[in-house]
Amino acid sequence: MGEEWIVAHKHLSKISISSNPNNEPVSINGYSDHLKIIGIGTDAAVFQSIDVPAYVFKMYANDKVQKIHIEKKVYELLEDSPYYSTCFGYKDNYLVLNFEKGTTLYDCLLEGIPIPKQVIEDVDQAREYARQKGLNPRDIHLKNILLQNGRAKIIDVSEYVQPGNDLRWEHLKEGYDHYYHFIEGKKVPLQLIEKIRKRYNDRSNQFFTFEAFMDHTTRLLQRLGNKREILNK
Fold it and tell me: Which Gene3D superfamilies would you find in this protein's record (predicted)?
């Protein structure tokens, strides 16, 4: 592909992104009827152009734009991999990526779409591939993994140059292996998912242990049939 995506720039220039405290999703300022919002994260929002739908545009919050060059470099190192998106270019505040069809694992839980074991295996293989390229695959969570024809596609690599292991994937994998059967094929209420997400993100609390977190979460999932009890817990 060439740079046909540039036709979307005039519409993207009508948008700005603001970050929010406490690791909450960004805020989108401005509007264009030529753009469709397809994802909102804690650093950026992702738009698809109706004029060039083969591309998406990951626009960073004003105080996060330094990540653009970092993420672009990561994509260059990953090269052509079935596990990751492709980066075609960038401007001052956004990256240009290929549009990936599929459903995030977050939305799979909301919609009751079963997540096959193959997805877990694919993410493990994707992480190993990234390590072989000298990267540190981290910050892997439900919103940046797509279920795509029964396989996994990872759509955010912005933290792959940071050191350390945030354990997000290890915790997700353990949760899948030991607890997912409680909810497989069931629609999980948004309020419950957000309750669990915020509780997990508060794991900096000195009293947090993953075992205690999963024990509490499991009790909520086992009572999934009683929505009122879950949401008022």
Answer: Transferase(Phosphotransferase) domain 1
In tens digits, the chain (233 residues) has pLDDT values of: 458 899 999 999 999 999 999 888 999 999 999 999 999 989 999 999 999 999 999 999 999 999 999 999 999 999 989 999 999 999 999 999 999 999 999 999 999 999 999 999 999 999 999 999 999 999 999 999 999 999 999 999 999 999 999 999 999 999 999 889 888 999 999 998 988 888 888 776 655 678 888 887 877 777 765 554 444 44
Each residue of 180-212: b (16+ CB within 10 Å) or e? beebeeeebeeebeebbeeebeeeeeeeeeeee
pTM score, whole prediction: 0.84
For the chain, what is the domain count? 2
Is residue 4 left, alpha or beta, with left meaning phi > 0 and alpha meaning psi from -120 to 50? alpha
Choosing from 74, 98, 122, the residue where a domain stops is 98
Q: Which of 42, 75, 98 is the last residue of a domain?
A: 98
Identify the helix (H) or strand (E) that includes residue 148.
strand 145-148
Q: Which string of DSSP letters, residue by residue, matches 44-57?
A: EEEEEESSSTTEEE
**CA-based diameter of the chain, in Å?**
54
Q: Which domain holds residue 44?
A: 4-98
Residue with tokens 């009751």: 112
Residue 109's contacts (CB-CB under 8 Å, 6 or more residues apart) are: 142, 183, 187, 188, 193
Instruction: Determine the Cα–Cα distance for residues 105 and 118; give it in Å rounded to an integer.
Output: 13
**Cα distance from N-terminal residue to C-terminal residue, the chain:** 51
